[in-house]
Amino acid sequence: MMNCRTHCGACCIAMSISSPIPGMKEGKPAGVPCIQLSSVDMSCKLYGKAERPQVCVSFPATLDVCSNSRSEAFELINRLEELTVS
Ligand code: SF4
Ligand code: SF4
Questions:
Q1: pLDDT tens digit string along 56-75?
Q2: Structure-model confidence comparison of residues 46 and 2, the more confident one
Q3: Whose CA is closest to atom 2 on ligand 2?
Q4: Which ligand is located closest to the Cα atom of residue 69?
């Protein structure tokens, strides 16, 4: 486990999320920024709130996904999403 980077938000954009998000009740497709992602600092507007989706609360920042930089995280997550497209 690692600490989530500030000013990243790669997972909140590149990943598809199938569970409901406040403001996006169908979840979101890969590549679409979450409506709850702050464009100012790429933080989650629901951080610490009860409305934050469980999938986000339990998503761990790991080197496997987050890598060493924001752009590497985008590359890795895009690759993962391509592999899991059914
Ligand atoms: S990709 Fe990783 S480091 Fe970036 S916001 Fe998501 S959890 Fe944090
Ligand atoms: S709810 Fe927050 S943590 Fe979850 S995808 Fe949206 S911005 Fe990211």
A1: 999 999 999 999 999 999 99
A2: 46
A3: 44
A4: 1
CA 60 to chain centre: 10
- CA-only gyration radius of the chain, Å: 12
Distance 25 CA to ligand 1 centre (A): 22
Alpha-carbon distance of 77 to 65, in angstroms, equals 6
Q: Report the sign of the C-alpha dihedral through residues 73, 50, 16, 33, in that order.
A: negative
* Ligand 1 atom index nearest CA of 12: 6
* pTM as predicted: 0.95
For residues 29 and 16, the answer to whether their CB atoms sit within 8 Å is yes
Whether the CB-CB separation of 61 and 2 falls below 8 Å is answered with: yes
From 35, 56, 77, give the residue whose CB has the most ligand 2 atoms within 8 Å, as the site to mutate: 56
Q: Token digits for 7?
A: 């000013």
